[in-house]
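Quarterly update from the structural biology core.
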Amino acid sequence: MEENKIKLTVPIMADLFAKNEKPEYLFWVGCAGAFDDRYKKVSRAFAKILAYLNVSYACLGQEETCTGDPARRAGNEMLFQMQAMTNIETFKMYDIKKIITICPHCYNIFKNEYPDLGGQYEVIHHTQFLNDLISKGKLKFDLDLLKDKKITYHDPCYLGRANEEYDAPRNILKAIPSVNIEMKRNRSSALCCGAGGAQMFKEAEKGDKEIYMERTEEVIETGADIVATACPFCMTMLTDGLKYKDKEEDLKNYDIAELVAMELDL
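Predicted structure, tokenized:
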């Protein structure tokens, strides 16, 4: 796949408002999408898809800050509320109504916890957004670049069990010509990657085995060529697991947005 087939210029909300333009969607990049080197690739892939589809969107750029989710999960309620109220005021300033996220943790907290503080929005996970376009016939895959690849999907806890979204990611993978394989624990029974609930930012606790290692073993058991994820924490943990198992050359970890961008040859 050649890089930069689409000249990527990400619109910034403040710049558009200065020209009296109001985009339809806020693309919330999130901490991982902005700062983690691996997940920056997912941000770029999704931004390329938005550009390819001529979607009316913008990012906050340097005005974006953390949602406060890790703070609340770690027990720092005051910091969470400070972060949330800052974001809510920013959203009011730009009259933001629709938010697309590439992180289930951001998705969950915007959708289910910000309303308690007065933040009411239509919140869309990127897999839901892409699935909706596919179902409407606005997004089609004709290149068959992944047709010989076996793909298994790992359900993120905050997209799956927390918000009961199991079908959108799978529908996207079914639309991409490929071979889909389910892990033995999937959907509501899927095993966590081990880094939610602010676990990403603390040392491991005592035990016989790391959760991410057990989940990585289940991925390997499928015989898949690719494990598809839809969450930055899941990507980090499974990538680490594959490295530990010395499988990173045989079994690749891609976000669903990256697979869509590949199949579109962006």
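The longest helix spans residues 77-93.
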